[in-house]
Structures are given as structure tokens and as C-alpha cells.
Amino acid sequence: VMGLFAKPLFDRTRALADDLWAPQYVPFTDETGSHKIEAPRRPLIFYSKGLVGPITILLLFQFFSAAIFIWVEPDWDLQTAIWYVMVTATTVGYGDVSVSRSNAWAMAWASLHILLSVSLLAALIEDITQLRERRKDLLTQVFQFKKCHEKETLEDLDENGSGIVDETEFVLGILIKIGKLDEENDVEPIRKMFQGIEGIDQNRDGKIDVHQLDTEKYEGAMKEKLRKLDNHVRQE
Asked: Is 120 helix (H, G, I), strand (E, B) or coil?
């Protein structure tokens, strides 16, 4: 539950950080219009910028908690309260400082503080994980951009050796090269499907001419394959 409240706060502080330190973009223009790619900063800058807000929120909450402990535990000074909340918040728990068991208010706030602190820490860890995934996605996008503009890549995409790479070859080839698609598990089964349908085409020129397909033969073959597939699924 605490994460539901913490995440919007974390996102808001990150948006403020973006306003102060704007992301870096690499713009480029082609015939279809303009596009830009965000270039991730170096790890130290990227994570510092992304975590300065969440860590500040966590620290402010602990200082607020320390102030309440000073109020409910009259014998505690500021140093003792801060030491206690920090040790508790990081789940270290040395046990050298503890609240008075005879003080109901102190026990109640200590229990609530532990619950909120652990929840905030879990939300912070989740936020760090999401930040790592964000940086990974940005680096993948940069890698994709570089791959798209390498002459060697364009030559590799020319599978038929015609010297021409069409849009379909380009998109499919790039997706395979950046790891978005697996050629054996994702592409090859679909290629086999194409070859199966193309085999019914009277021309057999490596293209499917929908208008020249033998409709009766095609529909009969498809119904037979679907029937076998349904029978297999039922058996499973």
C-alpha cells in the first residue's frame, strides 16, 4: 500500500529533476519527418538524477519519525532518535537502542515506523530496478540506432544479394540483430507458414498472389491443418 503512495511521489520528484537537468536527445530528420533518441547519461549522473528525489523523501520521513520519537520518548535526544530510525529503516537492527515497553505511545509509533520504513525501502528498491530497466531500454535504443546506420548491417540485411534492402527486410533484420526477435523460434516458424501457403500458389515465385490462389485447394488444406491442430490441443 505504501508503494502506491510512494511511486507517484518518486515519479514527481524525477519529473522535477528532468526540469532542472533536461534529458539529452540526439535529433535526426528523414523524409518522413523528425525523430529524436534520448541518450542516457553516464551511470553516476543517470542514477544520481533519478534517485535524488526518492532518497530525499526517505530521509525526510526518517527525520520526521525521529522528531516524533523525541516527543514520545522524553529521555531520547536528537542523536539517539536519528540513530534508532536509521538503523530500523535499513533493517539492520543492532538492538543497542530500544523504545520503552511501558510506553504505549512509543510502542505504537515504533510498530508503525517499522512498517512504513520497510515499505518505503521496498518501494525504493523497486524504483531502482525500474530505473535500471529504463537505462537498459535507452541503451538498447542507442544500439539500435547505431546498427541501423552501419553499412555492414545493411549489407547483412540483403539476404537475396540484390543490393537492395526493402522496408520489411530492414525492420525484421534489425529486430533480430538487437535481440527483440529470435530467428529460430520467432521468425522461422512464420517463414515456414509462408512457404506452406506459397506452395499452394500457382505461380510459386516466392510471393503470395491472393487473387491467383486456388481457393478450394487453399481452404481445404487450411481446414485439414486446423482440424489436426484442434485434435492435438484436445488431447493435451
From this structure: helix
